[in-house]
Every structure is written in C-alpha cells, then in structure tokens.
Amino acid sequence: MVNFVCVGCRENERIPLSVVRDFDDMDAGDREVPLQFVCEACGSGMYPEYYKGIHGYEFRIEDRLGART
Length: 69
Ligand SMILES: [Zn+2]
Description:
The chain is α+β, with helices and mostly antiparallel strands.
C-alpha cells in the first residue's frame, strides 16, 4: 500500500500499490509530475508520502509540503 497525504487538510489515504502503478504507467509521458489524487474532504491534491515510480524517480511528500510554506 502507498500512503497518500492531502496537502490541504493532511488527510491520509492508503492506495494499493497495484492501483498506483497502473496510474503511473498511464502517465508515462509526464514522469516528473508525481501521482496525484483529489482529496474527498477538501478537494486539494493528495500526494504519496513516499513513492518510487516505475520510471525511477522518487517522490517524498516533504518536498511538496515544504514548497508551500
Ligand atoms: Zn484534504
């Protein structure tokens, strides 16, 4: 499972890794942009707390949260 965190309200949601990888695979042309879901509570983007993409990039939620402060 991959833990996704909302940048708006910090809501957490666990997404099965197989689902995340399917999305990642479809998004192959835009590999620098992290996977994103929309928070059902506040409508902000939800990003993976930590995720290493199938194309090799790594993403950490700290990077995204830090950029907003
Ligand atoms: Zn939210």
